[in-house]
Amino acid sequence: MNLRSKRLNLFSSAVFYELSNLTEKRKQDGLPVFPLGIGSPDLPPPLHSIDVLREALLDPSSFSYQRTEGLTDFRACISRFMAAQYGVQVDPECEVLPLIGAQDGLSHITLALVDPGDIVLIPDPGYPIYEVAVHLAGATPYFYPLRGEHDFLPDWSMIPSSIAERAKLMILNFPGNPTTVVGSRRVFEEAIHFARLHKIAIIHDAAYIELQFDEHQTPSFLSVPGAKELGIELHSLSKTFNFAGARVAFAVGQQDMLEALRIVKSQVDYGIFMPIQKAAMATLDNDRGHHRSLRAMYQERRDQFLAPLHAAGWDIRIPEGTMFVFAHTFGHDSRTFARRLLEETGVVSVPGVGFGPSGEGYVRFAMVTSKDELSDIASQIAKKIDRLRNRQT
Ligand SMILES: Cc1ncc(COP(=O)(O)O)c(C=O)c1O
């Protein structure tokens, strides 16, 4: 008896599955494994937010069901944060919606906005939930390519008009996972121009907005004129404040889109656990400078990781943001390369093809351990660079 829906076939995770099996096997064989696959932060959230969380846990009323739209105070706090951090004004009553992680918003927004037959423009390579969410809604994804030769930026002129006419929604993601490019105000302006022309709504996934390096300072999408009329932006505390497992994020922007998302969510969840909302409020109000130390830390990690690899001749593009490094695979197929890398060095990476067809030819590393360890890991890879470059199977 087949108990599974046909829909499940659309969620192929073969790329990740194969590598995680090999990784498990290595562990069982007692061989070293350096997990740079998943982008889960290795550091705790700001400590006083944990105090707030602990205190809230002792209050019995904390355990009641919550409202999808979150505490009024939490929405007000998000509005203050957007104004202070990005100069963006959002009305806490109708332009803010708390989320159980950005993933919650991304996976439900398509149910709220698109129908079978509609097209959703998604970045390729891009975070896998974008495509999954389109399938969940029975709509059709159209991968707009982000290619290294084009600095991993979209080129809207390449989208056929027949596609643009059927597109109802587009997803942007800067700083981008896995591409690591941060975009710019200009990139947002071009997207808004294209979206207006074809009556397309925009979701900007800003999960890594605080992780921009060197001189890069791409602003909030909502600070660009016209953005709030056709789009929403998703922010997450997962990376910026190391809250990943606590599952708290928020969407801000166009009120009809947010209301549609709220309606879907009101059928599937009961909001965010109150102690988490309180801890998030403590952080958003008091730790607005946290990102400065976080940026410096990830930038140092990036540099320590890249130095031995660049010295060995692996000309990896320097990430402008995020917690990732997106490295070409010397022309080898990304799954084979990631497997070899694991076999030769114990380093776990993610094959680029897992992020979409244009991710082929790359692997992604997550900078989720100390800079010293990253430097050691990179030195180990550097020693094997000729074998990795040349091996055919
Ligand atoms: C681009 C991107 N968007 C969204 C998310 C999900 O974030 P959250 O933990 O808030 O669900 C991730 C997580 O890795 C991500 O890389």
Low-confidence stretches: none
How many helices? The count is 15
Query: Total strand count, please?
Result: 12
One letter per element, helices H and strands E, the order comes to HEHHEHEHEHEHEHEHEHHHEHEEEHH
Radius of gyration: 21 Å
**Major beta-sheet overview:** 7 strands, mixed
Bound molecules: pyridoxal-5'-phosphate
Description:
It is a single chain. By secondary structure, this protein is an alpha/beta fold. It folds into two domains: 6-44 and 290-384, Aspartate Aminotransferase, domain 1, CATH 3.90.1150.10; 48-286, Aspartate Aminotransferase, domain 2, CATH 3.40.640. 43% of the residues lie in helices and 14% in strands. It contains 15 helices and twelve strands. The protein has helices at residues 14-28, 47-57, 72-86, 102-113, 129-136, 161-166, 185-198, 227-230, 237-240, 255-268, 274-286, 290-311, 334-345, 371-383, 385-390, and strands at 34-35, 96-99, 119-124, 140-145, 167-173, 201-205, 231-236, 249-253, 324-328, 347-348, 350-351, 362-366. It has a seven-stranded mixed beta sheet with strand order 2-8-7-6-5-3-4, with helices on both faces. A three-stranded antiparallel beta sheet has the order 9-12-11. The protein has a two-stranded parallel sheet with strand order 1-10. The longest helix has 22 residues, at 290-311. It is globular and about 60 Å long. It starts with 13 loop residues before the first helix and ends with a helix. Residues 39, 101-103, 127, 173, 177, 205, 207, 236, 238, 244, 249 line the site of pyridoxal-5'-phosphate. Its cofactor is pyridoxal 5'-phosphate. This is Aminotransferase. Residues 33-378 form the Aminotransferase class I/classII large domain. Pfam families: Aminotran_1_2 (PF00155). Belongs to the class-I pyridoxal-phosphate-dependent aminotransferase family.
